[in-house]
Write a structure and sequence with these properties.
Blueprint lengths: L26 H35 L5 H25 L1 H20 L4 H11 L5 H12 L2 H13 L1 H42 L14 H24 L4 H21 L9 H4 L2 H29 L2 E2 L3 E2 L5 H25 L5 H21 L4 H29 L5 H29 L1 E4 L2 E4 L1 H22 L17 H4 L7
Antiparallel strand pairs: 1-2, 3-4
Length: 503
């Protein structure tokens, strides 16, 4: 695999300042960052809107298959990710992001104008093509920012999930309460359109390329199809039963496809994901540790959401019965803290070993949910333990993309972020289903609804704490290599100065 770049342009007067003395984010870099943040977290906002709109949609279209409203886009996104990240490496990360954002916009328009549930699912499925944009946004960060800004930019990019957590619930409540599910669907259209325009105007193309080779269609189909089947089977395992034939068919079939993928990749001349990349200790240990940490961190919100919003009914439900607005207010301080910690972590990563930062962040997160397992019975308790968890989460979301940058070369960046995203998705699906199984053991069914008792929530939080502890240990397996301030970066940075500022 080789790195190719565009012919060099004449450089301006030499800059004799050391990197720490150079200016921080100016107007142009700030616009680039806004565009990348929007692209990276748009699916999180859409996920919040989709979750809150489900009940209205089910009633309006009179369907019992409402799970497909969110599942369709997730499965399509999982399937296309290998092809998207490979194309980004060969043809340019920005170019591919523009293409998949445009396809996602078409899907959003179809969904917003849907007159039947089938048409709505078709639109959401097409929109799922946009899902890999998050991985590409993180990959572009290395190329479009100068080396001394890569750490802070990665911290802001990851930590901006805190802004989603603060504003998302209030936005969702306003749209659905005042404008119904159509309002939410049309907001998705507007948000995706904004992402497309911002990407085209403010983000330069990276000159870093993989060598253009024939596409390994068989490898891509086995990888994308295997992951999709496994994720779907894991997601439905609780409802179907873990020993049912359908669960074995999808999970087992998906795993067999992944085994076949490994065999195919070892024999083709131009593999979709080179095994030489995935087998390097620096890479596989990074994928393991970051996926355990981030997969757990992004999963726990679902359990907390159930605890907060489920009703309290003595005898069979120990939820807290909060409104969505009250729950958002309780979580607001922690969400702001996530962003502050992430920004600080991104700056510290230039001086402190990122492996240690991940180990510390995961350990803090584990301690936070060990505490949460015992103290989750009031708004005050959740707010206080949430602040501890926010410190761990802020470190994790900031340092994960930095570790991927340190593990791979510029030409491998899209593949590295894509692989991390796929492994993280598997971890999220497994951890979430294990949490549901644990909670169900102490659950009770009333009126065809499964409610959870306090012991179930306690055990789920202990599972999450255990996986976070495993992530902290896994971080110690990552070998030491170049630190963030030593890696090759900033290949597209000169192009930023040639972009409009919007003023």
């Amino acid at each position: 695999m080789t790195i190719t770049t565009a012919p060099p342009r004449p450089s301006p007067e030499p800059d004799h300042r050391t990197e720490p003395e150079k200016a921080g984010f100016g107007a142009r870099y700030a616009l680039v960052l806004v565009a990348l943040v929007w692209a990276a977290h748009l699916m999180a906002v859409i996920g919040l809107l989709s979750g809150n709109a489900q009940s209205e949609i089910a009633i309006h279209f009179r369907t019992t298959d409402i799970a497909w409203f969110t599942l369709s886009s997730a499965l399509v996104g999982t399937f296309v990710t290998p092809f998207v990240v490979k194309a980004a490496g060969m043809y340019g990360k920005k170019r591919v992001m523009v293409v998949i954002t445009a396809i996602g916009l078409v899907g959003d328009l179809i969904a917003a104008m849907a007159t039947s549930y089938g048409m709505l699912i078709l639109g959401r499925g097409i929109a799922g093509v946009f899902i890999p944009a998050g991985a590409l946004a993180y990959a572009l960060t290395r190329d479009v920012f100068p080396r001394h800004l890569v750490g802070p930019a990665s911290g802001l990019l990851g930590g901006s999930v805190g802004l989603v957590a603060v504003g998302g619930p209030f936005l969702s409540a306003w749209l659905i309460d005042d404008h119904g599910f159509r309002g939410a669907l049309w907001f998705m259209v507007a948000a995706t359109a904004f992402s497309l325009v911002a990407m085209m105007l403010f983000v330069p193309e990276s000159p870093v390329r993989e060598e253009r080779t024939p596409v390994d269609w068989l490898g891509g189909l086995l990888l994308g199809g295997g992951l999709t089947a496994a994720v779907y089977g894991i997601g439905e395992g609780t409802e179907w039963g873990w020993l049912s034939g359908r669960t074995f068919l999808f999970v087992g079939g998906g795993l067999l496809a992944l085994v076949a993928f490994v065999l195919v990749e070892s024999r083709v001349a131009h593999p979709m994901f080179p095994l030489s990349l995935l087998s390097r200790r620096q890479v596989w240990t990074t994928l393991l540790a970051t996926s355990l940490a981030a997969g757990t961190a992004y999963t726990v919100g679902t359990v907390l959401y159930l605890l907060a919003l489920m009703p309290r009914v003595p005898g069979f439900s120990d939820g807290l019965g909060f409104s969505a607005t009250k729950n958002a207010m309780i979580n607001a301080p922690a969400s702001v803290l996530v962003l502050a910690v992430a920004i600080t972590t991104g700056a510290l990563a230039r001086r402190i070993d990122a492996r240690r930062l991940l180990a510390c962040g995961s350990l803090v997160f584990a301690v936070a949910f060990l505490l949460t397992s015992q103290f989750h019975h009031s708004a005050q308790q959740l707010m206080l333990v949430g602040l501890v968890g926010a410190v761990g989460l802020g470190i994790i979301v900031a340092v994960v993309p930095i570790l991927v940058i340190e593990a791979v070369s510029p030409a491998e960046q899209a593949l590295g972020n894509g692989a991390q995203s796929m492994v993280q998705g598997i971890v999220q699906a497994v951890v979430l289903q294990v949490a549901f199984v644990v909670m169900a053991k102490d659950g009770a069914v009333r009126h065809d609804v499964l409610f959870y008792r306090d012991a179930g929530y306690t055990n789920a939080f202990l599972v999450i704490a255990g996986v976070a502890l495993a992530a902290s240990i896994a971080a110690l397996l990552i070998p030491k290599v170049k630190r963030l301030d030593e890696v090759e970066a900033g290949q597209a940075a000169p192009e930023v100065d040639r972009l409009p500022t919007g003023s």
